[in-house]
Amino acid sequence: MEDQDEASFRQDFNAIHAPEETLIRYRKFRSDLDKAAKKSAKPDTCCICGKENPKFCNSHTIPQYCLREIAVEGKLLTNAALVGGNLLDTEVGIAQALTFKRICRKCDTEFFKLYETPETLLQEPSSQVMGQIAAKNLLREISKAKQELGSQKVLGDKSPAMYDAMMDVRSIDVAEDEKALQTALRVGGSAKPSNVYSILYYKVLPYVVPFAFQQRVCLISDFEGSVINNVYNRNPKYKMEPLDVCVLPSKGNTVVLLFASSRAKRYRAFARQLRLLADDEALEAIVKIIFTYSEDVLISKHLSESVLEDASLKQLARMNSCYIMLFHSLKGDAANAIHAAIDDYSISALPDVPNLLSEQYSLER
Ligand SMILES: [Zn+2]
Fold this sequence. Notes:
This protein is an alpha+beta fold. It is globular. The longest helix is centred in the middle third of the chain and has 29 residues, at 127-155. Strands 5-8-7-6-9 form a 5-stranded antiparallel beta sheet, sandwiched between helices. A two-stranded antiparallel sheet has the order 1-4. 37% of the residues are buried. It has helices at residues 20-41, 64-70, 80-83, 105-110, 127-155, 161-188, 268-276, 279-293, 305-308, 311-318, 324-329, 334-345, and strands spanning 59-60, 75-77, 91-93, 99-100, 197-205, 211-217, 243-250, 253-261, 298-299. The chain is 41% helix and 12% strand. The protein has one domain (29-361). Helix 5 (127-155) runs antiparallel to helix 6 and helix 8 (279-293) packs across helix 10 (311-318). Bound molecules: zinc ion.
């Protein structure tokens, strides 16, 4: 509880230490719910080729060859290793790391071939590569959302009001994501250059960093505390502008890539601020963004205990960008929510963390 600042009204993740008995009950409840939700969320067709009732592939968001670069005996640490507590798994095997089941085996092998070839990312990515990365990120996002919506359906009347409110937002997001997926599939499926995506940052580091990451995040605030996405604005005409962020270890190197839709206008100031930073400062800012905005980072077990115990890194890992809690507890005061959020998420105001993208923390080969 030590990191919870009441004044900020932020609902951070806390380290929950549940007694063994509660833990057993929780795991049973969770596993039954997940099973039922999965059944309810299962698609009828492959999301790429449209084949009906195919055998769905256990697809990886982050290519397995990237994960193998940093895994120890096939295992990786999850965000829960930083957050602490005993409720969530702190380790995951490569086979189950950030997977989703929404496409058939043939599409899983063929559609992503270009970007899943280790050499590809070591050159500045083409629109086709970015389309494939965006498609993977969206498929995973849609899969997660459908599973959560499935849980709500299974819970029925027992679904808490707060969860129902979150799911109302989720269903709007999923509709936007499904549209974005069609664009990503079109661009990712064609060698013809397209200007659908713009690169905001691309760098190949000549070493392997101790974590892997690949996800869309919706930045709330830039370096100076100006709003990028007002995540509380639920006017259907207001579209979120996500940023695709990748840290992918590949062949003894690490590819760091940030890109967004070329139509996204809200990243202009952010991109300018990022370009003005020295190399190490830009990399540290990207570390902060990843740990602050996402729970889906995979960390190498080679990383020392002292880094895993770093108070600032833990603080970022616990920050919960889902401000719906705040929004809700203030009975819809969205203006207050975004003001608190842009201060909290201003990149310059986030605490300094160990720069896990610097050579200092690289894994020995
Ligand atoms: Zn297919």
